[in-house]
Write the structure tokens for this entry.
Amino acid sequence: MNKPKISIVIPLYYAERLWDILPEELEKLAIANQDYFQTEIVFVDDGSKDKTFALVRELKPKYFTFKAIRLARNFKSYIAILAGIQTATGNYVTFLPQDLQEPPDLVYRLFLEIQQGYDVAWAVRKTRSDRFFDKIFSHLFHRLMHFVWPEWPQTGADMFMISRPVADVLLSMQEKNSHITGQILWSGFRQTRISYDRQRRKTGKSGWGFWKKVELAISVITQFSYLPIRACTVLGIGLALLGFLYGILITFERLTRQISVEGWSALMVVILLIGGFQLIFLGVIGEYLWRIFDEVRKRPVYIVMEKFDSASCQDPDRY
């Protein structure tokens, strides 16, 4: 009875094809660790249109309890994790992807680390078994984030375990366009890291296409860094300085009567260059303004349509 409870949040999105594997692996995890902690699974159906939530409701585990919520639409995995943290009741909260590319035995390793007096334990990738272009994009993204934010792991950290106080801080933020890795790093607390080898996907394919990854990169950079605005300022000053010097040159040539008619091409290049930079600057400012507008509307971060608690064995509440 004195054993701590670990809540494992698992966002689900069209997970019907994975259901032959996922519950079995979770049972193995709970059995292997029953002497160390109680296992609570929090399933979050992130707007799936298949039978995912129906399969969750029919689940009859022997070695773990579970809660399940179904979101009204797809709010993306970051929001689904926050919804799971809100529902979790454990002393510690961690996260597993539905495809189990992060091995479930990391839960025990993270638990051992956090018991050493830490509030946050990260699982940092050492190697990853993904497609070549996925590796390249991930490498560039995490290197960029490490450059912007030195505390960001250079190889990425998709799995973590946090204590209840850290979970409460995350829930108090209620940010829509953010990233949970950045929020945990920003919050401070006592943090530690372990390394692991990311496994190959057992079935299916990732729902994170190229443009979704680009959108994520833009969201994270604009949410946690003023670097794009600062870059616009520096480039603007540089262009203004070049324009000022060029103006002095033109004035000198005009006074010495050296200006020829053949200046149209150079003029067009300057106009197009400055116009292009102005559009980029407006785009960067627009990204920040959109995020401000999205926050001040005060819409809920997510909407729960159904929920289920295996401990009470009640039918899900509907909204």
Observations:
- Residues 264-296 form the longest helix (33 residues).
- The first strand starts at residue 5 and ends at 12.
